[in-house]
Amino acid sequence: MKTSIKLVLTGSMGVILIIFSCGRGSSSGQETANSQKSTTNFWGKVACGFQLSLSLDREMYRVGEPMTATVKLRNSSDQSQGIGESNPEADFDVVVKDDNGKDVPRSAYWKQLQEDPQSYRDFMAKMKSGEEMKYTMTISKLFNMRTKGLYSISVKRKVLISGGGDICEVISNTVLVRITD
User: Which residue has the higher pLDDT, 32 or 80?
Assistant: First the structure.
């Protein structure tokens, strides 16, 4: 059984949402939303020897406030692997959904990046077993998140499988973020 207490404080600095939860998960045996979706540093599933982690510095932002994400890519295999590098905004496909599960529209900035391949570099990096690469990107520059509400964010990245030439998709954990006035 799981018990949650939600405390909302308002004042001159805005709204603060605090959620306390305790217990051992749900009685149905499913993982709870807090264990799957968080702003803390959790990892997505291993795919093709890689894992992705997405984190934000906090769970709540005001409309129009910059929202910076940290993305980590880990070589979870037992051998060195190559990874194509360009620009984090090009290498990763960020997925943002509103609280109804609908895709959030991308910004004019994102559309401009897609039309200007000159803004990217292109090289191959070698990652040792267990090595992590860290990237930062401003999610609020890539998406029109101008409506208050709860959003879910994840990232995907395509990687080339060593030796085979096949492409595999690696998917991060999902984080939840609340946009307020």
Answer: 80
Question: What are 72's strand-pairing partners?
Answer: 53, 134
The label of the residue with tokens 């051998």 reads 79
With residue 140 as reference, give the H or E element that holds it. helix 139-142
37-180 classified as CATH 3.40.50.700: no
Report which of residues 108 and 7 the model is more confident about. 108
Residues in Cβ contact with 25 at an 8 Å cutoff, skipping those fewer than 6 apart:
2, 31, 32, 35
φ/ψ (deg, to 5) at 6:
-110, 125
44-95 pLDDT, tens digit each: 999 999 999 999 999 999 999 999 999 999 999 999 988 888 777 878 899 9
Start-end of CATH 2.60.40.2970 domains in the chain = 37-180
Residue for token pair 């998406």: 143
Burial of 59 by CB count in 10 Å (0-12 exposed, 13-18 middle, 19+ buried)? middle
Query: What is the SS3 assignment for 18?
Result: strand
Beta strands in 24-120 (DSSP E): 50-56, 60-62, 68-75, 81-85, 92-97
In the three-class reduction of DSSP (H, G, I as helix; E, B as strand; rest coil), residue 128 is classed as coil
What average pLDDT does the chain have? 77
Which residues lie across from 157 on neighbouring strands? Answer: 92, 170
pTM: 0.73
